[in-house]
Amino acid sequence: MEKMEEQALHSKRRQKGGLITMPFIFANEACEKLAVVGFQANMISYLTQQLHMPLTKAANTLTNFGGTASLTPLIGAFIADAHVGKFWTLTMASLIYQIGMVSLTISAIVPQLRPPPCHGGQLCQQATSGQLAILYISLLLTALGAGGIRPCVVAFGAEQFDESDPKQKKRTWSYFNWYYFVMGASILVAVTVVVYIQDNVGWGWGLGIPTVMMFLSIIAFVLGYPLYRNLDPAGSPFTRLVQVCVAAYRKRKLPMVSDSRLLYDNEELDADISSAGKLVHTKQLRFLDKAGIVSDKDDPKAPNLWNLNTVHRIEELKSLIRMGPIWASGIILITAYAQQSTFSLQQAKTMDRHITAGFQIPAGSMSVFTITSMLTTIALYDRFLIPATRRLTGLDRGITFLHRMGIGFVISTLATLVAGFVEVRRKEAAAAFGLLDRPNVTVPISVFWLVPQYSLHGIAEAFMSIGHLEFFYDQAPESMRSSAAALFWTSISMGNYLSSFLVSLVHRFSAGPDGVNWLPDNNLNKGKLENFYWLITLLQVVNLVYYLFCAKFYTFKPVEVQLVGSKNVDTGNGDGEVEKISDGFELALRV
Predict the structure, then answer these.
(1) Residues 51 and 114: beta-carbon distance below 8 Å
(2) Is the separation of the CB atoms in 131 and 51 below 8 Å?
(3) Interior/surface letters 386-406, b for 16+ CB within 10 angstroms, e for the rest
(4) pLDDT, tens digit, for every residue of 548-564?
(5) Residue 38, Cβ density class (10 Å: 0-12 exposed, 13-18 middle, ≥19 buried)
(6) Exposed e or buried b for every residue in 417-434, given b needs 16+ CB within 10 A?
(7) Cα–Cα distance, 311 to 240 (Å, whole number)
(8) Is the overall model pTM greater than 0.70, yes or no?
(9) What is the pLDDT of residues 293-326, one digit of tens each?
(10) What whole-number distance in Å separates Cα of residue 475 and Cα of residue 469?
C-alpha cells in the first residue's frame, strides 16, 4: 500500500515538466539568442560607423556593457530564488529587454538620433551627449533584462526533469549540451543573416529583425506555461548565507564539538531547501561549524537562525566558498574570448573578405566559424566522446566537468597564441604592399587566415563554458541554482571588465612619443596587436596552472538521502556505503 502511495505521489509530481516542455523552452532560447546576438554581434560596427566612436572607446563601451549585463544576473537570481520564481522573473525580464531593443532600433531609424554620415576623408562628427544617452539607456535596459534571463533560463529548463528519477537525471546533463547546441544554431543565423542585413541593407532592418524575434521568444515561452514545473521560491538564499556567518561569529569563542553528529539538525526546517537530498557535514572550513553548536541559550524546536543553523545550511555556504576558486578561473578565458567581437573583428575589416567577385563576408559574420566549430564539437562530444569515455570511466557524462573545463583552457590558450602569429602575417602583407599608413585600404590577404583562431575559440567554448555551467548547476545547493547560474554570468562579467581594464592599460602604457601604440584607435597596421594577444596568452598559461591546482584539491558536494522502509527512492544500493552516482554528486545512503 505504501509503495502504491509513493508511486501515485511520484506520478502526480511528474504530471508537469519533462521532455514535452523542451520545444517551448528551446523555441524561446532560439528566438531570444538570435535577437540578443543579432543585436550585439556587429555592435562595434554600429558604434564606430554610425555613432563615430573611436575604436578603443567603442571596444570598452561594449565590454563594459557586456560586464554589466553579466553582473545583473545576481539581482535576477535573488528575485527568482527568493520571491517570484523563475518563470515570472524570465517573463518580466524579457519584456524589459524588449523595451531596450525597441529604443535602440528607433534610434537607428530616426536620423536625428544619430550623427550625420561622413564620407571620404572628412572629419566625422561624433554623437552628441543626447544621442549617447539614448544608446546608454537602451544598453542599460537590455543589461537589466539580461539580469533576469541569464540566471533563470538554464536552471528553469533543467528543473523540468525530476532529479529523483534516475532516467530524468541523465537527461538533465544531455539538456545542457542541447541547450548550447540550440543556442549556437540561433547564433549562427544571427552572425550570418542578421549581420549581412546590418551591413548591406541598413541598421533599421538589422536591429528591427532581432527586436521582432525577441517578441516571438516571449510568446513562445509564455505559451508553455500550463506544462512547466514551477518550483516555489524557497526564500532568500543570501539571507541564509549571512545568517550562518553571523551565527558562526557570535559563537566563535565556543569550543568545537568532538563529534559532527552533535551539530544541529532539523529536517523539518530544511524540508523546502533539501527536497533532492540533504547536504552532509564536511571537514573543510570548520570554523563555520560553530553556527551549528547548540548552546544553553538556543531553542532547538524554534531556533533563532541568527544564532543557530543546521548542518545543511552551513554546508550550503561551504559549497559556495569551495566553488569560488573554480569560478575565478573562468574569468581570463572570457577576456580572451571578448577580443573576437572587438579587435579580431577590426582585423577582419582590413582583410580581403571576398568569396566571389561580387560577394564578401561581413566582418561581423566571422564568428560563424566560432559557432560552427562549437556546434560540431558539441555534436561529436555528445554522440561519440561521451559513449566512448563512459565505458572507460563509468561516469554518465563520460568525463568530469573539471576535466572538460581543463581541456577548454588549453585550447583557448592555443587560440590566442595563434591569433598573435596571424596578426604578424597580416601586418607583413600590409608592409609588403606599402599599406602601413593607409588604414582604409584593404590588405591583400585573405580573411580566412583568421579562421583558426575563431574556430579554436569555438572548440574551447564547447568544452569550457558548458563544463563551467554544469559545474555550477551540479555543485550549487539545490535552492540556489539560479544564483549559481548568476555566478556563471558573473565570471563572464569579470572577464569583460578585465578586458576593458587591459585594453585601457595597454593603450595608455604602450603609447610611444611618436604616437605609436599597441592598440591604436585608427590604424591597426601601425599597432602591435600581436603583443596584446600574447600578453593574454601568458595570462592564460598562469591561469591554467592555477586551475589545475584548484581542481586537484576540490571537494565535491556530498548529498545524503535517508531511506526509511519503502517510502524512499530505491537506488539499488542500500548497503550504507557512500555511492558515487556522478562525477559531482556523492550519495550517502543510510538505512
Answers:
(1) yes
(2) yes
(3) beebeeeeebbbbbbbbbbbb
(4) 999 998 888 777 654 44
(5) buried
(6) bbbbebbeebbebbeeee
(7) 12
(8) yes
(9) 988 888 888 888 899 989 888 998 898 889 889 9
(10) 10
